[in-house]
Structures are given as structure tokens and as C-alpha cells.
Amino acid sequence: MRELLDRIGPPDETARAACRRALDGKTKPRRSLGRLETLAEQIAALVSLRLPPVPEAAIVVAAADHGVAAEGVSAYPSEVTAQMVANFARGGAAINQLARNAGANLRIVPLALDRPTADLTQAPALSEPEFLAAVTEGYNAVPPECDLLCLGEMGIGNTTVAAAIVAALFGGGGARWAGRGTGVDDEGLARKRQAIDDALARHAAVLHDPLALAAAFGGRELAAILGATLAARRQRIPVVLDGFVCTAAVAPLAKLRADTLAHALASHVSAEAGHPMLLDELHLRPLLALDMRLGEASGAALAVLLLRAALACHSGMATFAEAGVSDKPSADGATTAAAS
Amino acid sequence: MRELLDRIGPPDETARAACRRALDGKTKPRRSLGRLETLAEQIAALVSLRLPPVPEAAIVVAAADHGVAAEGVSAYPSEVTAQMVANFARGGAAINQLARNAGANLRIVPLALDRPTADLTQAPALSEPEFLAAVTEGYNAVPPECDLLCLGEMGIGNTTVAAAIVAALFGGGGARWAGRGTGVDDEGLARKRQAIDDALARHAAVLHDPLALAAAFGGRELAAILGATLAARRQRIPVVLDGFVCTAAVAPLAKLRADTLAHALASHVSAEAGHPMLLDELHLRPLLALDMRLGEASGAALAVLLLRAALACHSGMATFAEAGVSDKPSADGATTAAAS
Q1: Do B77 and A26 touch (CB under 8 A)?
Q2: What values do phi and psi take at B63, rounded to 5?
């Protein structure tokens, strides 16, 4: 996996600058579209095109179960993971509606739902081969012909795993990183903090190694998201991250090499307590803040609407010259038309 | 106009509660879709339907010119208003692309572009008949068959007018409310602050009357937005406000009667300095914060994507019972399926 990172090229700064110049010529005050402009520039740099076309988006939702659910860390029982995967298949979940609304292809990747990971407070959640198998499954799950990839997850217990991973990467323990997930009560939250601290203590020997700790803490769905994110980077596909768990899943990559997540956009900041802090640690600025805490790529499926709007806007707009609209007034107060 | 307000009914709280119950039965942790849920409830109450369908959106952009532009308060010359209206007609502006992207009908309402308002620092910008004519034009501009109305504006000099209106309504003068608009320099900003304070002094006698001050400070496009907002309230059509100028245009209505803007949603908080304060004054919470400062209903045309997503999501989702997904665990830790 480390060799893969060495084959990833940097963003194309020439394309970014060309995009900047193109946007500055459009009929609007310079930079007045704010983040719609910086997003377009970022995507231009990533896909190496001056004005990228409106992307075809795909959504990949990875699902798996977690041994740590036995510690009473979630408001819902483990069987809900498989029940929700069935709900995804029948089209009844939130992400089915949001994917259709966004015109995005939705792919569900259930990972060994009959074999939950080991309880990370007791043992390594995944062996190295199990971890690599899940990473590979995610790597291969990126649909062909997709030029914008939204990632999300489903897995009862996985906010505990995610919090343990980011506690290991960024410090602070369960007290800093545990949140209420799908809505755990005060006692469940206390158990969750304890489980995170127990996991940190049990796996102290591997905490210095981002990939080893990702395996030890597990989450096949988190590993698959990490794999899909790597695949997208190699293919110069921008990635739209969902909430806390999805962001935690890719955080080990940032620790391996600083620019590995140059293609990652934070769709939203969720209501999960650790998410704003995690985004800060990764220098990611969310596009939306809607108090959501569902997962399933639901936030990513909303952010993709803004990304498509940004690119649709810039690709269709007239320049000052084309439209015969006056650009800046001259210094003495008289005006100059860019068209003249 | 005051008589009209008396004929406006309150939001339907029964529909709001029914929507709440319907959303709580859907396959997701309760309220985990955050603002997507409260938005759906708000629209349910306004249109008096338990689960409102995905709305057909229309965008109305009002455009007009301002005598105060002669005070050197804008980075652009007045002729840009008419040039941009021509650009709208040819489909070359940002809002053309964003409207198409949102699947929304776009209507441009140019108001007497050959007759700028009087300079509000010197005289009333609009006479009462002129003001009422512009309000009426906006009132009648709401397209039939529209069930979500986005409002926006174009008018060189209109952030000065907007700032003067909200300074009169909420106090604080030019120092508090003047911002850089399309990008005025420091000297222009100083002139803008002065123009606002001059306007407040000149029209001191009418500042207690929200509609009289709206006429005295003018902006035919602001008056038209006020009219369209009234028409939408009467027709139970939710309104999506754009940025600072658009929000300032409807602010006098909130002073007339507290619930007049119950149907108004703030699409975004813009980069214009006064906008966050104005939204606070009106108790409006923006959906987006993207550092935009273009106007033209550009922020509203993005927010409509989220509103449509909210309603598309809820109308299509399965309930716990339909999907056979376990709902909350019982108090003793065993689980109960809502379906069983």
C-alpha cells in the first residue's frame, strides 16, 4: 500500500491556475461565487482540466459488523446492519432517495456480514490478511466511468471504532472522541469511552503505525473506504467524504503521507461530537452543516449537488467580453468595458 | 398592504406534527437527518400537507437601478445593471446555469431600468405610487404552478440601499451595516457608510414606518421582492431568500407583523458584512455558508437543491415496519423490532 502512495501524482497546479483565470473572466465580480469557485479550481487541479465538465457521480456505501457492539456501545443491535443492507437493496433507505435525487449510481458493498470483526477491546479486530482483503474490496469497488466518488458506511458500533482510530492518530482518548452515534444514552456513552480507552491500551504497540492500527481497530467497511479512497487518488477521481466514520476511515492515509487526501472533500460536518475536531486535524473544511448524523453517504449525496452546481455554473457562463458587460471601473472613475 | 397581512393564515401546526410523526417512523435514527427533517416539517406546516411532494421551483430575479450609485458607492458603474439583464436574457449569467442545474424556471423582472430611483441621500428614492407599482409588479411576478419560490436581485448600488433599510429597522448606522458589495475599495466603503448615515438623517421622519422607509430608501427590485414575498405567503408558497439585499428587502415585513416571514427560508449567509447580523435579527438560520456574494438568487438556487433533496428523501423512505428493521432496543438491552 505504501508503494501505491509513491505512484500517486500531485495535483496539477497549472490546471488550477488556468481554471482561476477562466473564472476571473466570467460575468460576475471576481471570486464572488466563493467556494463554488475554489471547489472548481480544486477539481480542475485534480482532474488536470481547465474547466472540468459536470461530473458523473457514484456513491459507494460499505457495510460491516463489529465485535465491539457486544460492549453495549450502540443504541441499536448488530442485526440492524444486515437489515439496513436489505433495506438498501430494496430501495427504502435515505441514501436510495438521495442517490436518485443526485442522479448518482449507488453501489452497496456488504463485507462479511456473517463474520463480525473481533471486539477491539479484547483482540485485533482484523488480521492483516483480513484487513488487506477489505481494503482490496474497496479498491475494486470504484465504478468505472465515475468521475466523482461519494463514500459512506453502515455498521452498528462503527462510531466507536472510528473514535478509537482518530484517538490513536491524534491523541485525546475516549473522553475527547466518543460521541452519541445513532443516539446512545449516557450509560452507553460511558461504555463507549471506556471501550475506546481499552482499545488504545490493548493495541499500544501498533499505534505508531497508521495501517497496523487501522487493522487492529478494524471495521471492514472502514478498510474498504480507505481502499476506495486510494483507488480514486490513483485514478484522479475527486472523493466526497461523508461523516465522522467515513472521515476517520481515511485519516490513517493522511498520517502516511501528507498529500494523500488532496483529492478528498468534506461534504458536511455532522452532529457527531468528534467530527468537527477530526476535520480540523485533517485541514478539511466541510461544505455543509446540517446537523445530520445518519451516515450512509447521506451528507456526501447532498454535497455532490453543490459540486455539480459549481461545475455547471462555470462551464456555461459568458465572459465579460462575450456578454459586453463592463468590467472594473478605471482609476479616475470612468469605466472600461472588457468588451471594448 | 397591511390589510393583506391580516388575511394571511398561520402555519398549519397539525400538518407539522403529522410530518414529524411520519419522519420518526422512517428507517433512520430519529432526527438523524437534522435540518433535512426540520425543513420538511417547516414546509409541511406551510403548505398544509403531511409529506409535501418534491416542489417545482421557480426563481424570480428583480433588477433595477439606483440614484445613489452617483455617490460612488459601488465598484461597478450603473450601466452594468442593464448589461447584466441582457446577459440574463441571453443565458450567460451564473443564475442561468444555476437555475437550469436546479431544474427551476427563471423569470427576470427588470423594473424601469431607464429611470433610476432618486438618490436616497438627497430625496425619497421612490414616491408612494412608484413604490406600490414595484411591489405590485413583484406580487404579480410569482409564476403560476410554482410551489417553491426563490428570490434574488441585480442592481448596481443596491447593497447601499439594503444597508440603509436594515440600519433604519435595526439600528447601528453605516458603520455597522455597510459592506463591500461587489468589491468596493476602502474609499468607496467610506462613501457608502456616509451615504447610509446621510439617508438615515434625511428620512428621519419616516424611519418608524417600515413601508414608508422602504419607499423612501427605494430599490424597485427590493420593493418587487417584498411584493413577491407577500404573494407567496398568501398562496402558501415557501420562499427561499438569497443574500443580503434580498433579505433586507423583506425585513420591513417582519417589522409589520412578527410571523409574516414564517414561510421564508434563508438560503445562505453571504460574504457581505451585514448579512449574518441581519439573519440573526430576523431569526433566520441559513442553509449554506459558501462565502458567496453575487446576488442574482445564486445562493437560493443552491439551497433549493437541498430542499428538494429533503422532500425527495422523506417521501421515498421505508418505515421500520415496512423494512423489517429493528427499532430502539428495549430498556433491558434486548431488542424489539418495530415490524414484530
Answers
A1: no
A2: -135, 140
